[in-house]
Amino acid sequence: MLELNRRYFRFVAIALALWLLVVAAVLHYSHKQQQLTDQIEEITLSINELQHKLYLPTTQRVKLIDDIDLERQLLYAQTLQLKSETLSWLGVDITHTVYLLERFMEQLALLLADEVRFSDFIENITVQPDTISPEALGLGNELASVVLNTLYSEVTNPRAVYLRLEQIQHQTYQLPVTEQPRLLQLIAQASSILSQSANTEFLIARTINHPIYNELDRQMKKSQSLLNQQLWMVTLFSGLVMLALLVLVLKSRRDKDNDAEKQDLESQQQAHEPDDRSADLLMAQDIERSEELVRQKLIEHNQELVVLSEEVEQESQRQKQQHNQQTVDSVESSNTKPNKTKPAPRMAIDFDQMLHTLDDDQDSMLLLLNVFISEHSQDVPLFRQTLSEDREKATRVVHTLKGVSGTLFADGLRAIAIELEETLCAGNSVQEEQIIQLEKELDATLGLVHSYIAKHSYIAKHSS
To answer: Which residue intervals make up region (Disordered) (predicted)?
Structure first.
């Protein structure tokens, strides 16, 4: 009897120890998972706050540029913290989430750079020198009016804007030499802002509609589902342990009852010994039947216990296989990486961006390209001639070419035009290599323009 009690006690102790171990492990990983969920929730709040500020008009958004930059830095720190998390097999795969967060911050950085340029332009045109002529003040105000009307007007004529900037620049050269650099710098900033305005709106739209919002929502739901699964697992395992203990208690009580019956039979045998052999034989037969009955009951109880133990073991194996399968699926998912494709080479003219800036008006675009051919195809010979005769006229030639190339999104031509203008404004000598580079870029641009006009003229002719 004492040995039986010790065996039951060991079984109960092992079952409770196993239960405590599993529950402690699940609670530990649930705590880690909850920390990850809290971090994702903080990142979601930060991104939502940024999204609300991006919906504001440009004038209000520029005033909040410092706040947006601080929130971007906070989001960057939160992303680094999320990236450093080491999750177990119970955790959620956050590789794709971190990747989308990094791409989101790259787009936000590009957007902030455009906003800073606009903010600098507003600040430069607002701060007036102590000594400024009324003509220079009027040109500055007119330049600000052109920029703001172009940015906030729903209907804009790019050619009219270009001609107005050209007129302001021409009037600037009529001012005293001391007042020209500031206005020329403002005109250059205005040209850059207007040429990048469509790109800025594109970046805002991509940032507001970035897939990171859906990804964070998906991760929150997945994390909550995992926490529910862990809770369900603890509940199921606790139920199995309680069932095993209940079976053990029932078996222990039955064993005690059998022992009590056996002791009663033995005491009755000792108290009533028969005098004749027939009575002894009957008593012996009764005792054997009783013992056989007890042995059968013990065998039945042991069989029931074995069946229950096998059911408990099978359920535990099934749960273990299920979690192992989830682990394999999670590892295979985390090893899958997106394919990276090399970007296509960029052409000398971005016709798609130019057409998008003109609100997809093909006729206006063809008209603008024809004007470019008629007015600027001889700019290199004109520049060579005016360079030796009048450096001021040569400066106007490359400045005009710089503005036109910005309108056409011809980055190579615009870059060499800016370089030549800066060289002339600084009073330095123009190198022959620079002129050759200008001629090369202009010829390449004119070649693309001729090809584009011929192609679309052919399409328009045959489609009609």
So the answer is: 310-345
- The phi and psi torsions of 443 (rounded to 5 degrees) equal -65, -40
The closest of 183, 162, 185 to 173, measured between CA atoms, is 183
pLDDT at position 447 over 70:
yes
> What separation in angstroms does the CA of 328 have from each of 22, 219, 320, 323, 324?
20, 19, 12, 9, 6
At 34, give phi and psi (nearest 5°).
Answer: -65, -35
Closest by CA position to 238, among listed 317, 322, 311, 316: 316
As a whole number of angstroms, the distance between CA 355 and CA 363 comes to 10
Q: Identify the pLDDT of residue 439.
A: 93
Q: Which residues of 337-374 are buried (b: 16+ CB within 10 A; e: fewer)?
A: eeeeeeeeeeebbebeebeebbeeeeeebbebbeebee
Place of tokens 């007015």: 375
- Contact criterion met (CB below 8 Å) for 115 and 193: no
The Cβ-side half-sphere exposure at 330, using a 13 Å CA radius, reads 16
Terminal alpha carbon distance of the chain: 107
If you average pLDDT over each of 108-122, 303-317, 424-438, which comes out highest?
424-438
Encoded tokens for 269: 């045998």
Let me know: does 334 contact 93? Beta carbons within 8 Å. yes
CB atoms within 10 A of CB 6: 10
Of 168, 194, 190, nearest to 180 (Cα)? 168
Question: Half-sphere exposure of 287 toward its Cβ, with a 13 Å CA cutoff?
Answer: 16
Distances (CA, A) of 177 to 190, 262, 430: 20, 124, 21
Q: What is the pLDDT of residue 4?
A: 62
What whole-number distance in Å separates Cα of residue 189 and Cα of residue 110? 17
Q: Output DSSP code: residue 346.
A: P
Q: What mean pLDDT is reported for the chain?
A: 77
What's the rounded Cα separation, in Å, for the pair 37 and 46?
14
pLDDT in tens, 196-236: 666 676 777 778 788 888 888 888 888 788 888 878 888 88
> How far is residue 115's CA from residue 147's CA, in Å, rounded to a whole number?
14
Write the pLDDT tens digit of every residue in 236-284.
Answer: 888 888 888 888 778 777 877 777 777 777 777 665 554 545 555 665 6
* 276 three-class SS: coil
> CA Rg, the chain, in Å?
43
Q: 172-182, pLDDT tens digit by residue?
A: 888 888 888 88
For 233-376, list the strands marked E by DSSP.
none
Q: How many CA atoms lie within 13 A of 16 on its CB side?
A: 9
